[in-house]
Amino acid sequence: MSEEIEYEGLGESAGHSVHMLAGALAGISEHAVMFPVDSIKTRMQLLSPSPAAVYSGMSNAITRISSTEGLKTLWRGVASVIAGAGPAHAVQFGTLEAVKEMMGKRQGSAAWASTAVAGAAAAITSDAVMTPFDVIKQRMQVHNSAFTSVITCARTLYRTEGLSAFYVSYPTTLLMTIPFTAVQFSVYDHTLNFINPTRKYDPLSHVTAGGIAGAVAAAVTTPLDVAKTLLQTRGTTEDREIRRANGIRDAVRIIWKRDGWRGFGRGLTPRVLTFMPSNAICWMSYEFFKMAIQVQGGSQAPPRTTHI
């Protein structure tokens, strides 16, 4: 009987390239599958939408978009997010594993803290890569977008608004994704410890832990995501106040002034519905590709259980 390969027991020969490649493949899988729901979320978060793009909920949005624009519209901009998701997730998971390794094994409350630190570091590096692609994606997702090509959108944005337009939301994105990633990785890791204490490859446990982590992290950070969307889509509106928004302080002020507390919950349902399955897909894909790459590479490290 052949010895079972412990997928968590990655040998040194595997290196961080395994985590980076697995992360890249997982990121592409996650974003491609859930892109239509993300498009609806973007539209529902806009403070000054076209009258034809005001939706009462998810089902209403799907019905109206399919009847007036066609369901194909919900995939507009997917090329941008796929192009960015590969390298961004490679950097994210590579950083995560490097920081976890650097901090060593922790127990109890120290384990939560080390996971959160690793998650935050992963978010900073990943967002530096992903933010420009996300800006292009959201410019293409809005109702009646003038862009059908990622390259055309990028060139026009650079010519009319300058390089800063690609990173105007980066500080806000970090304020959102650092807690998002910290919460996500912490909840995932500790949920997995609870339902799969041996840390063996088990798709169901990875899907369950990933889905729970995604839902919690998405709900907690929705207010900041609304502010990020306002900043990234400011060039698509005729609203002068929104067009002049130049950072999170302006975005928060505008949202509060126009919608109060309710405004910070815009798109909560589609955001949670996006991140619960997408995170489940991402983690399942990551753990699968990590195992598959290890097996293909012949990494035969001694079996062990990996806990943070």
Overview of this protein structure:
This protein has 308 residues and is mainly alpha-helical. Helices cover 71% and strands 0% of the residues. It is built from ten helices and no strands. It has helices at 15-45, 58-68, 78-103, 109-141, 150-161, 170-195, 203-232, 240-243, 248-263, 268-297. Helix 1 (15-45) runs antiparallel to helix 10. It is globular, with a radius of gyration of 20 Å.
What order do the helices and strands come in, and which of them pair?
Layout: H1 15-45, H2 58-68, H3 78-103, H4 109-141, H5 150-161, H6 170-195, H7 203-232, H8 240-243, H9 248-263, H10 268-297
Provide a concise account of the structure shown.
With 308 residues, this protein is mostly helical. The chain is 71% helix and 0% strand.
Low-pLDDT segments? 1-13, 299-308
Mean pLDDT across residues:
84
> How many β-strands, per DSSP?
0
Question: Count of DSSP helices?
Answer: 10
Return Rg in Å: 20 Å
Strand content: under 5%
Biggest sheet details: none
Range of helix content: over 70%
Shape: globular
| Class from secondary-structure proportions | mainly alpha
Span between termini? 31 Å
Series of H and E elements: HHHHHHHHHH
